[in-house]
Structures are given as structure tokens and as C-alpha cells.
Backbone:
């Protein structure tokens, strides 16, 4: 079914379609297309990504489209793929066509990376998110229009997450019962998780191992791109760190420390960091993978869990 739609999109935009391969499974259907020719010869392949009615697809489409064009104008340590075309398939589905990055996700190459590679990646990510955050921290008008309403939503979003925090984790069944009963008492109030005196800024909010692309050449990892901006929002570094630490870094605290030192984490967040960081993990809008809490199921309290996960 999808092959027909991909070929239709390619025909609309003048790309000669040779082969179609599904991308890494995710929220929305994504396909890598080898092309014979086309109006934009950035590579011999493109990526076609469809956005449907589920999971706020229309909003994600607008955010990823706006950020795709915005990122092309920025000078960041790690680039993101350019947008070649976009449009609407029908009343329910929209699509974006991206430049293809000839590499792989770091999740696919994880076993090939050395300790030195991972240390380099941790520093690169710390530098990257610092540069990204700084772009909009002092100039709120620089934020793409589709994200500007979010400037006043992050506090309210976290407050709603805190209200339903215990309910969420009970339904996700991700914590043992003795830790689940501590969620409400442990999770910090929102005004202790956000520095109200400082402006919020643009965050990727889903910088997982699937979204950092690169290649291994002569035994060394080379980072090439960051992809998938559909969950980007206006927020703070604590929320940004959730996916970075628990997914990209695999909860390895040495990597988190390198990342934070490169980022130069402000004093507001350094104070009581483990408590603040785990609070933000618990408030995240998505459940964490099962393996995140598995090594800590014997922790006697969430305070102990916080230290074991985040005391750097």
C-alpha cells in the first residue's frame, strides 16, 4: 500500500523512483527512496515521511516542516537533513520529503562504538544542545511560528503531568509497587524544575539513539546528523536530558557527566540534580522502555533510585 503512495509523492515532485525501503519503525511511516534523478540533486536518495491523524500528526507535520527550514539557516555543530518538498496526500495525511543522510542511527552501530567514541558523542551532544538552546534563549522571536504558542504552555504541561503522574505510571506498570506509592511525594513541584527567572528555549525533546545518525569509518564513529523534530517544544534542559540519558546514553552516568560539563549546566539545575532529573523522567509524556528501570527495581525508594541513575 505505502509503496504506491511513495511513488505518487515522487512523481508529484519530479523524483525518479528506483527502490523503496522502509525506515526505522517509528510514530509515522517513513521510507528511504533511491532516486534516478530529481529537481534537487543533494544525493541519490530521499526520505519520505507521512503524518497521519493519530498522535497529533498535523501538529507534528507543521513543527517538523517549520523547523526543517529554520535549521537550514542556523550554524549548529551537527546538521539536520534539509527539506526537499512537502504536501498533502489526502484530507488525513501530509508528507515531508527530506534529504537522505548516508549513514545509520547510533542505535544500529552501538556495538561497534568504543568507549572513546561514546565519550566523544557525549561531548558533541552537550555542545550541540547548548548551541541549540542558546539560539532561542535570548531571542524568543527567533523561534519558528508553529512553536511560539508553546512558550506559555510548558509550565501548564508539566503541571498537568504532575497531577496524573501516579495514574500514568500505574497504567504503564513500569515501576514496582513500593516505588509507585512514592511518586506523588517524590516528584518535585514545577517551580522547582523550571528556573522561572530565566527564559525557556527550543529543545529537540526526543534525542534518542534512533535520531542521532553517523557512520563508523576506520573504527571510529563520525556523527553526521540529528533527525526527527516532530516532538520539539519550548522547554528546558531537564526535559531535554530525559531521552538523551535514558535512551541515547543507556543511563551511563559517565557519559551524562561529560555531556553536562560540556553543556555547562547552570547552578539552578546542578542543585539537587538527581531529584530534579528523576522528577522530570517521571513527568515525561511517554513511558520509558522497560529496561530503563529494570536494573534499579530493588531500590528501596525513589530517592535512592534518583541517586543511582543521576548522581554524577
Residues:
Amino acid at each position: 500500500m505505502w509503496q504506491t503512495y511513495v511513488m505518487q509523492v515522487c512523481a508529484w515532485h519530479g523524483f525518479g523512483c528506483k527502490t523503496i525501503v522502509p525506515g526505522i519503525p517509528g510514530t509515522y511511516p517513513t521510507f528511504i527512496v533511491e532516486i534516478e534523478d530529481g529537481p534537487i540533486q543533494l544525493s541519490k536518495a530521499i526520505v519520505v515521511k507521512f503524518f497521519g491523524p493519530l498522535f497529533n500528526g498535523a501538529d507534528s507535520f507543521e513543527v517538523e516542516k517549520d523547523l526543517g527550514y529554520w535549521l537550514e539557516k542556523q550554524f549548529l555543530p551537527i546538521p539536520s537533513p534539509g527539506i526537499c518538498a512537502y504536501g498533502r496526500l489526502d484530507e488525513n495525511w501530509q508528507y515531508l520529503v527530506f534529504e537522505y543522510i548516508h549513514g545509520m542511527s547510533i542505535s544500529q552501530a552501538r556495538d561497534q562504538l568504543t568507549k572513546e567514541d561514546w565519550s566523544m558523542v557525549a561531548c558533541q551532544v552537550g555542545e550541540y544542545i547548548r548551541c541549540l538552546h542558546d539560539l532561542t534563549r535570548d531571542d524568543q522571536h527567533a523561534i519558528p511560528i508553529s512553536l511560539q504558542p508553546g512558550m506559555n504552555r510548558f509550565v501548564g504541561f508539566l503541571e498537568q503531568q504532575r497531577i496524573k503522574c501516579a495514574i500514568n505510571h500505574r497504567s504503564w506498570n513500569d515501576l514496582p509497587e513500593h516505588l509507585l506509592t512514592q511518586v506523588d511525594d517524590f516528584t518535585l513541584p514545577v517551580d522547582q524544575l523550571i528556573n522561572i527567572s530565566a527564559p525557556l528555549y527550543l529543545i529537540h525533546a526526543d534525542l534518542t539513539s534512533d535520531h542521532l545518525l553517523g557512520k563508523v569509518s576506520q573504527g571510529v564513529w563520525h556523527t553526521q546528523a540529528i533527525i526527527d523534530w516532530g516532538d520539539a517544544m519550548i522547554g528546558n534542559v531537564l526535559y531535554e536530558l530525559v531521552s538523551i540519558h535514558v535512551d541515547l546514553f543507556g543511563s551511563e552516568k559517565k557519559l551524562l557527566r561529560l555531556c553536562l560539563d560540556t553543556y555547562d549546566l547552570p547552578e539552578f539545575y546542578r542543585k539537587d540534580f538527581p531529584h530534579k532529573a528523576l522528577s522530570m523522567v517521571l513527568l515525561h509524556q511517554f513511558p520509558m522502555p522497560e529496561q530503563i528501570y529494570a536494573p534499579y527495581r530493588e531500590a528501596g525508594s525513589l530517592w535512592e533510585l534518583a541517586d543511582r541513575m543521576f548522581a554524577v
